[in-house]
Design brief:
The structure holds two protein chains of two kinds. Helix content of chain A is about 30%, strand content about 25%. Chain A is an alpha+beta fold. By secondary structure, chain B is mostly helical. Classes of the chains: A alpha+beta, B mainly alpha. At the A-B interface, helix 1, helix 6 and helix 12 of A face helix 3, helix 4, helix 6, helix 8 and helix 11 of B.
Amino acid sequence: MKPMKIILVIGLLFVFIPTLSFSRGAKEEKPIRIALSGNPDTLDPQKTAGTLTFQVTKSIYDTLIEPDEKGVLVPALAERWDFQDDGKKILFHLRKGVTFHDGTPLTSKDVASTLARIKDKNTGSPHGAEFSPIERIETPDSSTVILYLSSPSAPLLATLASGWSAILPAHLIETGHDFGSKPVGSGPFKLKSWVRDNQILLEKNPSYWMPGKPKVGGVEFRIITERSIQVQGLLSGQLDVIDMYDAIDLPLLQKNPNVKVEKILTSLVMVLAMNTARPPLSDLRVRQAINFAIKKQEILDVAYGGGVPVGTFMDASDPYYVDFTSLYPYNPEKAKTLLQEAGVGTDRTLEMVLPQNFEPHVRAGQIYQEMLQKVGLSVKIRLVDWSTWISDVYRKANYDLTVIGHTGKLDPDSRLANYGTDKTYVRWVHPEAASLINKARGIMNPNERKAIYQRVLEIMAKEVPFVYVGTSYRYLGTRKTLEGFRIQPKLDAYDFRHVEVR
Amino acid sequence: MASVSSPLESGPTVFLSGQKGLRIPFFILLLRKSIRLFLTMLLIPTVVFFVLRIIPGDPALVVAGFDAPPEVVENLRSKLGTNRPPLEQYEEWILSVAQLEFGTSLISNEPVLKLILDRFPLTLSLAVAGMLCALLIAIPLGVMSAVRRWTLWDYGGMVFSQIGISLPSFWLGIILLLLFAVKYPLFPLFGGDSPWHLVLPSVALGINRGAVLLRLVRTAMIEELGKEYIITARSKGLPELVVRYRHALRNALLPVLTIAGIQFGYMLGGAIILEQVFSLPGLGRLILSAVFQRDFPVIQGGTLFVAAVFSLVNFLVDLLYSLVNPRIRVG
């Protein structure tokens, strides 16, 4: 009977050991628990382009300036800034009394070293190119930084307000510190522990520069890949916040009296993209026909949980947005006529490549397929994983049709850069649009800039390299007792500084 | 893996030779099995290595983001070393693996071996706990079925076993979560912070494997109970409980524990799937996210490690079995 006894003893141990861990500290302030759908690659803001990283690092580091709730750039580590020399010189005046988590005070030297680090090729920063207008950095005193630019650059301020411009302490940059797993910043929280694929625990930085903030003791990011587990976690009170792009679980959440759901317009542009280098999609009439064949609101409602239709390549809430939705209303008869004129029949099958991991896009793809079949276009679906989608579809344009959402950018240039040239995945070439986009980058006058983008958006609306479906909603589920949680517009980073629990 | 079937296949050959049994010295057997082990461990990572180079997907793009300018991506590729010819990369990799050097992750820059060793204890304890659960289910139910053959107990056991085999463990896992973490919140819904988190996934694994082992226990027990020494024991007037449990069960457990050992490798596989359902930070999730990110060194190191553990466990079980039962000593 020996094996039986051993098995029993070990089995009982498994039951009793955990009860011990129940008794641990209830004294300390409980952290806010939020679900994260994946593991950040790194916590070094300058070595990745992954949104998951910036969703976490927003709480650990600060930037010189930052977007407020409406997307307007406001002071952060820099108290104010001035343009001089027709925008070729920018002066930043740093906030005084700011310290990093290791106790060293913030000075202009930290800003200069950080910007030099991003520009350094050896850092391998994916956003490095955005900083190329900066020619020289000067630090006349400990609280002033002067950037000298090769030419005026309107998008630069937005870049400096983004997570990848987070300021790091100079003395650690010099020693080659591993910011990826041991981040040191000046942000509202410091890293306490990170168990990959499990949780990231942040604790309050008591000497944060914003008076009285943060109000909570810490933040606990739980890495949960299964959407349904996130939902159940919020319902059962094991999570405080979940952030959803998928509206499928909405009824379940709305029934629960302890949960509130907030509907927020994202800055995404959901599209059906067309490879305009490939016939028959190179024919404008075919692209127009496809636009006439799609019921955009239906796609938004069924696949993306609702949203606002747009008629061009800009999200509905952007200050540069212009409404062109009336250009291509749903008109299947017109679609059929245009296809006939272009000589496209059912003999040619178009291949629609869909990113498998993104359920909403796959659902949308199936509806597109059905709508296009109704006007006589035959469409075949191929599912690929995300890495394949990026390299095969987005970089090599190896597709006819694909479905994706373009994320928001603080500055319109980041969204529009390269369109009109053969460098984008729709391979849509339009020299006028391309040169206008290049011109707008160097124009500092907002009204003049807006006029140029208006023309660009009009060309893109008429030439339809995409079906611009619309901007979708996101649903933020929180426990009823929680208030003040914010998501930075366009950047989608989480801001816990104003969160309180009542 | 191939060695799993060897006890059955090689059994008859011994007697076909017409001799008393062709005795192969133990060290030759050991050598043969070691060569097989070595080849398996070389073949698997090699296949994985080249498959990764053939399928689309580029780690540099995962790091750089899909809007990065081509020169940034090219710079990253040369930094990561993924732009060199595959054969050259393979040569370098296999040479460093021979020195137990698995490289660093392309994404997080951490040493691959450290990542694996950080994660493996959780996967291993899940597999062990799952095996314990399986035995806790299989032994009592199997004995019950054998002793009360063709009664409701027996039919109940068989029905349970049939259902347990048919239900995939990830589905069972979800049902257990909904029941015991949501409806009656006795256990945590996600995370791997304490042994408490391992209870539900172990049960899910245990039911699935226990169902298989249950049939084995039943068959072995029935066989033992029919043997002559049992009749002798009974005729000596030993109490029925002693006959059943001290004599019959002890002998019946020998093949059961052997098969359980062989099944342990499959347990690891099951654990890796359940990690996803239960949001546990084990080896399986490490490899899976590495696949999505095309983090080549982690995928290669991870699969090599899993293949090594799987083959080693089978190798040891195989050896032990041949030590115990000399008839098996034909490779």
